[in-house]
Amino acid sequence: MASDSAPFTHLDASGKARMVDVTSKDVTVRRAVARARLEFPGDTLEALKEQGAPKGSVTGVARVAGIQAAKRTFELIPLCHAIPLHSVTIDFEICDRNLLQVTCAAVAEAKTGVEMEALVGASVAALTVYDMCKAITKGIKITEVALLEKHGGRSGSWTASEVSAREPQ
User: Mind listing the pLDDT tens digit for each residue in 67-78?
Assistant: First the structure.
């Protein structure tokens, strides 16, 4: 459920979609971290670790795809602002035998947050991993895309309850 009676900011009083007016907001450093998780059947993740996927270096290509996607978020999500990003990082972590976690961190000095950029970066990196590994198996599942933390702006900082104190690089 939405926070206590907060309206949907992307809808006007009559319910029509609109881009949020950020004119009166201050420029602050904005940072967001998001993740996507992929579950691999069998020994597929083992092949990825060895970079043996048929299409080449999976994490290298997925990293570039995620960074490029974060930079183009405003072209993909209709009501997002074009934000000049200062930094986007994509990291991969094998969490267990069959689970790969993709983490995207985005940073900008802007009037609005970079949560969508981080979410899009993590999502596209995960989709790229899927694309590059589907020749081995089509049973890979992207099981979660989630915002882990956001910082900056009027609302300050927010962290998902399950996030550890360790900040991703």
Answer: 999 999 999 999
What's the pLDDT band for 169 if we cut at 50, 70, 90? very low
Distance in angstroms (rounded) separating the CA atoms of residues 83 and 64: 18
Question: Where do the domains of the chain lie?
Answer: 28-152
Q: Is there a catalytic annotation at residue 43?
A: no
DSSP category for residue 150: E
Catalytic residue chosen out of the listed positions 26, 91, 96, 131? 131
Average pLDDT over every residue of 119-143: 94
C-beta of residue 150 within 8 angstroms of C-beta of residue 32? yes
DSSP 167: P
Fold for domain 28-152?
Alpha-Beta Plaits (3.30.70)
Confidence tier at 41 by pLDDT (50, 70, 90): very high
Please state at what angle helix 58-71 crosses helix 115-133, rounded to 10 degrees.
150
What is the Cα–Cα distance from 32 to 30, expressed in whole angstroms?
7
